[in-house]
Write a structure and sequence with these properties.
Blueprint (H helix, E strand, L loop, with lengths): L3 H8 L10 H9 L4 E4 L8 H9 L3 E5 L3 H13 L4 E4 L5 H12 L5 E4 L1 H4 L2 H8 L3 E6 L19 H7 L4 E6 L4 H11 L6 E3 L7 E7 L3 H9 L6 E5 L3 H13 L4 E4 L5 H12 L5 E4 L12 E6 L6 H8 L9 E7 L1 H11 L4 H19 L5 H7 L13 H4 L6 E2 L1 H13 L6 H8 L5 H5 L16 H13 L3 E3 L6 E3 L1 H7 L6 E2 L20 H18 L3 H4 L2 H10 L4 H5 L6 H22 L23 H10 L4 H8 L3 H13 L17 H14 L5 H6 L6 H17 L12 H12 L5
Parallel strand pairs: 1-6, 1-7, 2-4, 2-5, 3-4, 5-6, 8-13, 9-11, 9-12, 10-11, 12-13
Antiparallel strand pairs: 14-17, 15-16
Helix pairs in contact: 1-3, 2-3, 18-19, 19-21, 23-25, 28-30, 29-30, 30-33, 31-33, 31-34
């Protein structure tokens, strides 16, 4: 039994290596230890019970909440040669009876059931007549009242454990906070020692949140960057789903709606069209997607705000299950908050309290200006210490020079006060721009002194400024009504006692089209293979990804395998798949390679570390560090790679952090500030360290920009590495420096 899991992994499923924790979980289940698995969507939860199911003598019962999930899983298992069935209302009487017969005759290894069906007398009698070795509870967060998708019938599952005490139980979910995890263990009477919690970090998902100002135009602009790619757009209401899907269809997009208001036939048809790649985009309410295992979803758009972080995380988790880069865009508007609050207010007191806690956590995530993975993963109890993930909008924003926006802040704050602190940003901006809208004229706000005093800036610029004022704590926004109110800090600004530094620019959204693979692949061969896959899928009446996922076709289009061994080394091709499709694939590949004079490329087998870290993008910082040490200047590196100075400094800083030495000559000459200021910054690095630049940035009240601070940090660390921080390149602090120090000690900002 020791080598059985690894053998099944390759021969049946076509994978060379287990993902993190899979091997440990499988062995724990085979040892008949009840097991809790918390693993992100796309992390490989299914294998954790499917492989033990093929090893156990008896039956594995999988309790799943949705019919679509059962059908999807069983189709994929049958394609792999694994005997599995499901029992639910979607089957005809004849199909149902045929599956019952297979179970009685011990012809299947897995049976999928809904929790409601599990407790019927007919099913209980059936299960009592066969050997049950394992109960699998999928979407286990449904057990907890603190979960985002609580289902009372899940609380009864403990009765099944009592009825079949010899069967091991494995509970799995992708979305569970520490509180929900404890709830699951308490309800199922699990021991704490048998829990496996994988990282919640989906490294291949790019997270982006932008202000919602023209949602339809923003959505179309986004979709145009992903032609012929599969994606989901989530809306709050059925009406919004219908309107948006009709509009997008009129614009020429391949799209279908999905919500509970459609007939069962319509929903099933639209979902099947999407799964089989006959339709590229689904516009849906939350009713869509749970359990859909379509691996090549390249984007998820939240047209409206989701209700909580669990819902958001689960919905973005439907993208990029094949491990390839996928884009998750959320349009964030305060009007959506009012809609959610309205529905929360209709709940009972306990449910209302829980829902408000969830919503407030989501708002903090949306409004953060740090790496989005920090609050997202912290919510699920995972500490994320990387300050820059390079896969979210906040981490890709350049640190720009801040400018003095005090006067603009005074205009905005004064307008809030003069209009009574009862209006939202829209109305305030209208007044500042001198709008002749009825709501402005009817309230006589055209007579205010602030009317029209902001015409030199665009509406977008004012909205961008307003969000900064909220983040800086100058104004607070009523989440129920959106009205803006002044804080004590605002009065200091209005009285001229406080300076406000910020960014003055319009919001720009960079939708750079990304390759779906970090390696370049042959797009022509990929399209030939994709077309053939679609033909095979239609003939077999299954979704294309059941035949092969995109990742398999991409690897073939990179390595051009032309032998049995090399084809078996491709992701997703095991012996079962090879026997079915091996000859067909080799014929296509060989013909294409002959016509284009392409030779097979060897694929190296990579060992996957149990604690995988983020790919280093070819370790560019090592390249930069080595080039700089060889004599290249910062300016030469900027010119070679066509990047900004700050980016070069970031690479060199990372190079130093990994313990490498860096030559210090040439760095300080790039600084444009006075020697006394340089000395003061270096002295403060001794006091506050170099991890964060903001404390020193604040000491100078923004007058010394981040590029300067990066330069001096780089110089400081390079000299410290060499053991010589006192350098004659810097003028010795004189009387001017005493002024700096006295202002520092008195708490005054440095000018």
């Amino acid at each position: 039994m020791i080598n059985q899991p690894k053998s099944i992994l390759k021969k049946t499923f076509g994978y060379n290596e287990f993902r993190p924790l899979q091997d440990e979980i499988i062995r724990n289940v085979l040892a008949k230890n009840d097991t809790l698995v918390i693993m992100p969507t796309g992390g490989g939860k299914s294998l954790c019970y499917q492989i033990p199911a093929l090893i156990f003598k008896g039956l594995t019962v999988v309790i799943s909440p949705l019919i679509s999930l059962m059908k999807d899983q069983v189709e994929q298992l049958l394609e792999l040669g694994v005997p599995a069935v499901f029992l639910n209302s979607s089957l005809s009487y004849e199909e149902y009876q045929r599956n019952i017969k297979k179970i009685i005759q011990n012809e299947v290894k897995l049976i999928y059931l809904a929790p409601e069906a599990l407790f019927t007398q007919r099913i209980l009698s059936l299960l009592s007549s066969v050997q049950i070795d394992c109960f699998t509870i999928d979407e286990a967060h449904c057990i907890s009242e603190w979960g985002h998708d609580f289902r009372p019938e899940y609380r009864q599952l403990i009765e099944i454990r009592d009825r079949f005490p010899s069967a091991v139980c494995i509970a799995l979910t992708a979305t569970a906070t520490p509180r929900v995890q404890q709830d699951i263990k308490d309800n199922l009477r699990f021991e704490a020692s048998n829990e496996f919690i994988a990282s919640f970090n989906r490294e291949n998902l790019f997270l982006q949140i932008i202000p919602k100002n023209d949602p339809i135009s923003q959505t179309i602009e986004f979709l145009e960057k992903y032609p012929n790619q599969s994606g989901i757009i989530y809306c709050f209401s059925r009406k919004q789903v219908d309107e948006l899907s009709i509009f997008l269809e009129q614009e020429g997009f391949s799209v279908r709606p999905y919500h509970a208001g459609l007939t069962d036939k319509e929903r099933k048809q639209n979902q099947d069209l999407f799964i089989r790649d006959d339709v590229q985009i689904i516009v849906a309410t939350i009713a869509f997607g749970m359990g859909i295992n379509k691996p090549n979803i390249r984007f998820v758009v939240h047209f409206d705000l989701p209700k909580n972080i669990e819902t958001y995380y689960q919905e973005i988790g439907r993208a990029g299950r094949d491990g390839l880069r996928s884009h998750c865009l959320l349009l964030f508007g305060y009007g959506d908050i009012r809609k959610i609050r309205y529905f929360i207010d209709q709940k009972e007191e306990k449910e209302r309290r829980i829902a408000n806690v969830h919503l407030n956590a989501l708002l903090r995530f949306c409004e953060t200006d740090i790496c989005r993975r920090i609050p997202l993963l912290n919510y699920f109890g995972e500490k994320y210490s990387i300050q820059k993930c390079d896969m979210c909008d906040n981490c890709l924003v350049d640190e720009k020079d801040l400018v003095d926006i005090t006067i603009l802040a005074q205009k905005f704050l004064s307008c809030i006060k003069r209009t009574g602190e009862i209006f939202g940003a829209n109305h305030i901006v209208d007044v500042l721009l001198g709008s002749k809208a009825k709501k402005v004229l009817n309230r006589r706000h055209h007579n205010l002194s602030t009317y029209g005093i902001g015409k030199e800036y665009s509406r977008k610029q004012w909205f961008h400024l307003s969000r900064q004022f909220i983040q800086k704590g100058l104004i607070i926004q009523d989440v129920n009504f959106g009205s803006l109110k002044l804080t004590n800090k605002a009065w200091e600004v209005l009285k001229g006692k406080k300076t406000v530094m910020g960014l003055l620019e319009e919001e720009r959204i960079d939708y750079k089209k990304e390759k779906i693979s970090e390696q370049e692949y042959d797009h022509t061969l990929f399209e030939i293979l994709r077309k053939k896959r679609k033909e095979l899928a239609d003939t077999a009446n299954v979704p294309p990804y059941v035949i092969f996922p995109d990742k398999t076709l991409i690897e073939i289009s990179i390595y051009f395998p032309q032998s049995k061994d090399s084809l078996l080394n491709i992701h997703g091709i095991g012996l079962v798949k090879y026997e079915k499709y091996g000859n067909m694939l080799m014929n296509i590949i060989s013909k294409y390679c002959d016509e284009n004079q392409i030779e097979e490329r060897p694929k190296r087998k990579s060992k996957i570390s149990r604690n995988r870290s983020k790919p280093t993008q070819s370790r560019r910082h090592i390249i930069f560090g080595n080039l700089y040490n060889s004599g290249k200047s910062v300016a030469e590196l900027m010119n070679m790679f066509q990047i900004k100075q700050g980016t070069v400094l970031d690479h060199l800083y990372r190079y130093l952090l990994e313990g490498n030495s860096l030559r210090s000559d040439g760095i300080l000459q790039l600084s444009t500030i006075q020697p006394q200021q340089q000395a003061f910054v270096l002295e403060n690095f001794d006091q506050v360290g170099t991890t964060y630049l903001k404390p020193i940035f604040d000491l100078f009240n923004g007058k010394v920009n981040y590029d300067e601070l990066k330069l001096l940090r780089l110089y400081y660390l390079s000299k410290k590495k060499s053991g010589n921080i006192n350098d004659s390149e810097i003028s010795n602090p004189d009387k001017s420096n005493e002024t700096y120090m006295s202002r520092k000690e008195s708490g005054h900002p440095i000018k």
